[in-house]
Amino acid sequence: MKISRKVGLILGAVILIAALVVVGMFYFQQAGERNDLKAKLSAAQNLSDVLAAQKKTLENQLAQAQLSLDTSRAKIPQSVESIEYGEYLFEIADECNVNLASLNFPKPTNKKVGAVTYSVVSLSLPISGALTDIFAFIDVIRTDERFASAAVTGIDINIAGSATIKIDIYGYKG
Predict the structure, then answer these.
(1) DSSP state string for 111-126
(2) How far apart are CA 166 and CA 155, in angstroms?
(3) Which of 2, 43, 57, 65 is at a distance of 20 to 30 A from 26, taking alpha carbons?
(4) Confidence band for 96, pLDDT divided at 50, 70 and 90
(5) Is the distance from CB of 75 to CB of 148 less than 8 angstroms?
(6) pLDDT at 149
(7) Topology of domain 82-172, CATH
(8) Which of 106, 95, 107, 105 is closest to 144 using CA atoms?
(9) Greater confidence, 45 or 69?
(10) What is the mean pLDDT of residues 33-38?
(11) In DSSP terms, which residues pair with 164 in a beta bridge?
């Protein structure tokens, strides 16, 4: 069976058009995927920039926290020297016009806070004087830089003019 030349040309044209349609479909599909990938790449680049900025911010915060930690460690003595603190306490008592009846330094104990171990000396300070002077003494203990590593843990006041002040003095063990 012989096909006429006209039918052969039409058949060839149909096959060529079908091939062009299939190739066009693949081309447009690939172009769409390429655009999606470009959008994803752009979003990933933006996210990378944001994450880099966050990393820099966090590194700065870490450096500030480390500096703050180092500053705090510098304020906390390595050991609690009873002679020094005894002198400070008697000096403050004299400045505040209170009488510090006795001062006993017990053996330090260890206290762990998180990953840090502190040497703690717990003192009980029996004082007497006017109530305003007793309050002044407590305020100086709380605010004096020499007692930056100390905490007032208890106060028992008698309105007759005596009090027992309990403080913990911390030393950094490392």
Answers:
(1) EEETTEEEEEEEEEEE
(2) 6
(3) 43
(4) very high
(5) yes
(6) 79
(7) Alpha-Beta Plaits (3.30.70)
(8) 95
(9) 45
(10) 91
(11) 126, 156
Residue length, the chain?
A: 174
Which phi and psi (to 5°) does residue 140 adopt?
-65, -45
Tokens of 29: 């599909």
Contact 119, 81 (CB under 8 A): no
Per-residue DSSP letter, 107: P
AA letter at 163: A
Q: Given a cut of 70, is residue 73 above it in pLDDT?
A: no
Domain boundaries, the chain: 1-75, 82-172
Read off the pTM. Answer: 0.53
Structure tokens at 62: 């870490």
Residue with tokens 């003494």: 137
Q: Identify each DSSP E strand in the chain by its residue range.
A: 99-100, 109-113, 116-128, 150-158, 162-172
Characterize 87-122 residue by residue with b for buried, 16 or more Cβ atoms within 10 angstroms of its Cβ, and e for exposed. ebbeebbeebebebeeeeeeebeeeeeeeeebbbbe
Helices 82-95, 131-143: inter-axial angle, 10-degree rounding: 140
Q: 172: phi > 0 → left, psi -120 to 50 → alpha, else beta; which?
A: beta
